[in-house]
Design a protein that fits this description.
Helix content: 40-55%
Radius of gyration: 16 Å
Structural class: mainly alpha
Distance between the termini: 42 Å
Number of domains: 1
Strand order of the largest sheet: 1-2
Number of helices: 7
Shape: globular
């Protein structure tokens, strides 16, 4: 594996397997270790960049759009947001059309997947990107309506 950004690059098979552990750890042979597997996968993928794992954002986007009541997507969301917004939070006043196509897709997935219903940590992660962190405010922002000061 070649080095990129201080991390060894991952091939697509390894990336898929880590995404499976991150987003569907119950599929593991030992369900009692599911949380540990998800945390280990998040740690293995954390800090990676689009250069070191170019397929990672796409793999996460493929798996996250369908809401799953038995799945907690916080770790995957944090990873996806880090890949989509490597420069940190959006500047104040940024609009949806200011985003790149890949950033727009991440925001759409957040809204469609029901992620914002998974609790305060998910909303906080979204807010740290300076994105609206309620479903209503995010939908309005995507539609081009002004953002309220509390979202």
């Amino acid at each position: 594996m070649a080095e990129a950004g201080g991390f060894p690059t991952l091939d697509e098979l390894a990336s898929r397997q880590l995404c499976d552990c991150l987003l569907d750890p119950a599929q593991a042979e030992w369900p009692s270790t599911a949380n540990r597997m998800a945390n280990a996968a998040a740690q293995a993928l954390g800090g990676r960049t689009g250069e070191s794992v170019p397929q990672l954002a796409g793999l996460l986007l493929q798996r996250m759009p369908a809401p799953a009541s038995d799945r907690w997507d916080f770790l995957a969301l944090r990873l996806l947001l880090g890949l989509a917004f490597p420069g940190g939070p959006l500047p104040d006043g940024a609009t949806f059309i200011d985003l790149s196509e890949s950033q727009q897709e991440v925001v759409r997935v957040v809204l469609r997947s029901g992620l914002l219903q998974q609790g305060v940590m998910v909303r906080r992660a979204i807010g740290e990107c300076n994105l609206p962190y309620t479903e209503e405010a995010l939908a309005d922002w995507i539609a081009g309506q002004p953002r309220s000061p509390d979202a």
